[in-house]
Amino acid sequence: MTTPEMTHQKLIYREASQLDIPKIMRLTQLAYREYKTVLTNQNWARMKAGLANESRYIDLMSRATGFVCEVDDQLIGVIFLIPKGNPTTIFPPEWSYIRLLGVDPKYRGLGIARKLTERCIDLARTNGETAIALHTSEFMDTARAMYERLGFRQVKELESMFDKRYWLYKLSF
């Protein structure tokens, strides 16, 4: 929960580095912990294990540009932009895409997720990308609404993950 004191703290946005990986891991685990209540125990264990997998973040940092938000040397927000040429079963090779947006629950409501997402959009445009995409789920209502306000449009429903509905969203430039 955001308090009045938090709104007066200086939020610093910067590019992430390899040295941030331990802090990013802690932050994403904290930010995604709220989903424990909407997932089965087995699916939460799978998600939690993925978020605790250091090699996942090392791989992301090798292919993506990460952005973080910090206050008083504490990491409170993170996002990754993966450039085109890194296809997955979800994302075609000609699209850039966003992964692992997370904000410390104590700092939500300050526009941190939006500012981090806008940084990815700006970088994608600067780099000559023609589209930026992401996937999101039925239990990520706040994020879905924010993405839609930023101009992302639902492309299609994906195969379920963690026994939940997921959609592919895209913003074309």
Tell me what the structure shows.
- It comes from Spirosoma validum.
- By secondary structure, the protein is α+β, with helices and mostly antiparallel strands.
- The chain has one domain: Gcn5-related N-acetyltransferase (GNAT) (Aminopeptidase, 3-Layer(aba) Sandwich).
- The chain is 35% helix and 31% strand.
- The chain has six helices and seven strands; from the N terminus they run αβαααβββαβαββ.
- The protein has a seven-stranded mixed sheet.
- A hairpin with a 2-residue loop joins strand 2 and strand 3.
- The protein is globular and about 40 Å long.
- The mean pLDDT is 95.
**CATH topological fold name:** Aminopeptidase
Radius of gyration computed on alpha carbons = 15 Å
| Secondary structure tally, helices | 6
Alpha-beta classification: alpha+beta
Order of helices and strands: HEHHHEEEHEHEE
Report strand %: 25-35%
- The count of strands amounts to 7
The helix content, as a percent range, equals: 25-40%
Distance between the termini: 35 Å
Biggest beta sheet summary: 7 strands, mixed
Say which CATH homologous superfamily is assigned.
Gcn5-related N-acetyltransferase (GNAT)
Mean pLDDT: 95
Notable characteristics:
GNAT family N-acetyltransferase; 7 strands; 173 residues; Aminopeptidase; 6 helices; 31% strand; alpha+beta; seven-stranded mixed sheet
Ordered list of secondary-structure elements with their pairings:
Elements: H1 4-7, E1 12-15, H2 21-32, H3 41-51, H4 54-63, E2 65-71, E3 74-82, E4 96-103, H5 112-126, E5 131-137, H6 141-149, E6 153-161, E7 164-172
Parallel strand pairs: 4-5
Antiparallel strand pairs: 1-2, 2-3, 3-4, 5-7, 6-7
Domain N-acetyltransferase: 11-173
Pfam families: Acetyltransf_1
Protein name: GNAT family N-acetyltransferase
